[in-house]
Amino acid sequence: MKKKNTRITGSEREVLELLWEENQPLTSAEIVKISEHKTWKPSYIHLMINSLLKKNVIQVAGFKQTTKNYARTFTPTMTREEFSIHMLREENQLNASSLSLLFGALLEEDVDRAVIDELSDMLQKKKEELEAADSGMEQDR
């Protein structure tokens, strides 16, 4: 089965960023209102939302009463970080050298000891998995 293409446009990314920043389900009308600095019309927001839904980047979170009607509310299906990793994987750019660059960039940021300990634990676990796989291969010979 072919994976869905989740490449998103710049405007779709802005809608996604808005949903992440607001950190609560929003209706399309609320998205239009919050992004008043944009020239987006409600019909354009509707098209972007449908596109993001098809790409499984956002989901319907529920309904909210707006005057006499009910409007769907939307939330992202993943965090910013999960989305970034997903996009790297989709582009087949998540390899050993990109991981090294990503890890190096992370360490250049202000990170506390807890984050470094968590990363160290993750690396140790991966080392143990690789060693177990290597010893399993040697036993098969």
Topology diagram in text:
Blueprint: H1 10-22, H2 28-34, H3 42-54, E1 58-66, E2 69-76, H4 80-90, H5 96-108, H6 113-140
Helix pairs in contact: 2-3
Tally the helices. 6
Q: List how many beta strands DSSP finds.
A: 2
Proportion of helical residues = 55-70%
Detail the poorly predicted runs. Answer: none
Backbone CA Rg: 21 Å
What is the makeup of the main sheet? 2 strands, antiparallel
Structural class: alpha+beta
**Strand order across the largest sheet:** 1-2
Overall geometric form: elongated
Number of domains: 2
Give a nutshell description of this structure.
This protein has about 140 residues and is an alpha+beta fold. It contains six helices and two strands; from the N terminus they run H-H-H-E-E-H-H-H.
Polypeptide structure, described:
With 141 residues, the chain is α+β, with helices and mostly antiparallel strands. It is 60% helix and 12% strand. A hairpin with a 2-residue loop joins strand 1 and strand 2. The model has no long low-confidence stretch (mean pLDDT 82).
